[in-house]
Amino acid sequence: MADPQDMIVPLLREMRADVAASRDDTRAGFATINDRLDRLERRFDNLREAVNGESVLGRYAAADVEERLDAPERRMAKLEARG
Q1: Rounded CA gap, 74 and 80, in Å?
Q2: What is the pLDDT of residues 1-51, one digit of tens each?
Q3: Nearest by Cα to 18 from 30, 28, 6, 26
Q4: Is the Cα dihedral 76, 78, 81, 83 positive or negative?
Q5: Is 17 a member of any domain?
Q6: Count of domains observed in the chain
Q7: How confident is the model at residue 78, as a pLDDT?
Q8: CA-to-CA distance for 27 and 47, rounded, in angstroms?
Q9: Cα separation of 78 and 44, whole Å?
Q10: How confident is the model over 43-62, as a mean pLDDT?
């Protein structure tokens, strides 16, 4: 029968190799996930900027429409005041 030390040491070396390989796989997986999250964050930032830009543009357009509607109302008020 083989000495227990002769069986344990090779098993421990094999286990260490498996753990190291698993650790490397896990690190590579997390790197991939982090890259994907970074891309998603950039896309969300771009979308957020686009939405904010559209809302500012919408405010300017609404202010322009409001100004156009106010002009005839002011003219009507002047005419009514004269008349």
Answers
A1: 10
A2: 568 778 898 899 999 999 999 999 999 999 999 999 999 999 999 888 887
A3: 26
A4: negative
A5: no
A6: 1
A7: 86
A8: 30
A9: 51
A10: 81
Alpha-carbon span 45 to 34, nearest angstrom: 16
Residues making up the chain, counted from first to last: 83
Nearest Cα to Cα of residue 66 among 56, 55, 76, 58: 58
Per the structure block, which two tokens stand in for 67?
A: 């100004």
pTM tops 0.70, yes or no: no
Token digits of residue 57:
């543009």
Dihedral angle computed from the Cα positions of residues 65, 70, 72 and 73, in that order, rounded to the nearest 10 degrees: 140
Domain range for residue 57?
35-83
Amino acid residing at 62: A
Assigned domain for 12 exists: no
